UniProtKB/TrEMBL annotation:
One of its GO terms (molecular function) is ABC-type transporter activity. Signal peptide: none annotated. This is ATP-binding cassette subfamily B protein. It is found in: Cell membrane. It comes from Novosphingobium fluoreni. GO terms for cellular component: plasma membrane. Residues 4-229 form the ABC transporter domain. Keywords: ATP-binding, Membrane, Nucleotide-binding, Transmembrane, Transmembrane helix, Transport.
Length: 229
């Protein structure tokens, strides 16, 4: 059963302007699905609907077979881990910032998280400071380091579904390549939906959906889409 289903979703912010034109797609469990499209196509709107900042005019959005309109905000937030492009960190230690991904995390949890195989590729490249009391603070980190902390903070929740919303688009090209490689390692075999405006940042996706004016224009593998260009 697919983890995320958009079933004929019709939505607009204003009543005379439709943004998503009956959009349907699925994110199968364990796969990395990417949505690419020009600015204004409706990509971020998909993320906002998933979090129920807005509800569709018609159609349904399902997570693990359940209509998200029927589940609590708490379970919805537990199901979705988001990495946005401009993650905000507290001016606290790296450990504090990572532990914040779980409201109930203790120092021992942070240390355990720091040893977690899934988090290693993220954490290896950070300056010292997993202790929640001492160590490098959020505001001192570079853009790439901040994004590593933000990704680790999301992953400690172990969310069943990972939503990457332009997760690397605020970074310079070199840092972007570095974070993309890390994201590839940590998102393998994880159910994820990546939102991107450039094909080059989603080369690893199992399937790419091209969104244009709130509709799917085409879909396929990275190679399929490059061939058709
Ligand atoms: P993308 O992420 O693909 O760039 P968005 O989903 O952010 O596109 O936006 C799709 C369209 O919806 C755009 O035309 C945008 O101007 C419009 N839009 C986005 N947010 C709002 C809003 N809060 N109110 C009205 N229109 C909006
Ligand atoms: P929580 O803290 O509730 O466990 P997360 O840490 O996964 O949730 O997400 C942090 C917050 O970011 C949530 O409140 C979520 O609603 C919000 N959010 C959702 N979509 C976006 C987005 N596209 N960009 C930035 N923040 C978002």
């Amino acid at each position: 059963r697919p983890s995320v289903v958009f079933d004929n979703v019709l939505f607009g912010y204003e009543k005379d302007r439709t943004i998503l034109q009956g959009l349907s797609f699925e994110v199968p469990a364990g796969q990395n699905i990417a949505i690419v499209g020009p600015s204004g196509a409706g990509k971020s709107t998909i993320a906002r609907l998933l979090f129920r900042f807005y509800d569709p005019w018609s159609g349904r959005i399902l997570i693990d077979g359940q209509d998200i309109a029927q589940i609590t905000q708490t379970s919805l937030r537990a199901a979705l881990g988001i990495v946005p492009q401009d993650s905000v960190l507290f001016n606290e230690t790296i450990g504090y910032n990572i532990a914040y991904g779980r409201a109930d995390a203790t120092q021992a949890d942070v240390e355990a998280a720091a040893r977690d195989a899934a988090l290693m590729p993220l954490i290896e490249r950070l300056p010292q400071g997993f202790d929640t009391e001492v160590g490098e603070r959020g505001l001192k980190l570079s853009g790439g380091e901040k994004q590593r902390v933000a990704i680790a903070r999301t992953l400690v929740k172990n969310p069943p579904i990972l939503l990457l919303d332009e997760a690397t688009s605020a970074l310079d090209t070199r840092t972007e390549q570095d974070i993309l490689a890390t994201l590839h390692r940590v998102s393998e075999h994880r159910t994820s939906l990546s939102i991107a405006h450039r094909l080059s940042t989603i080369a690893d996706a199992d399937k790419i959906l091209v969104l244009q004016d709130g509709q799917l224009a085409e879909s396929g593998s990275h190679l399929d889409l490059l061939r058709r260009d």
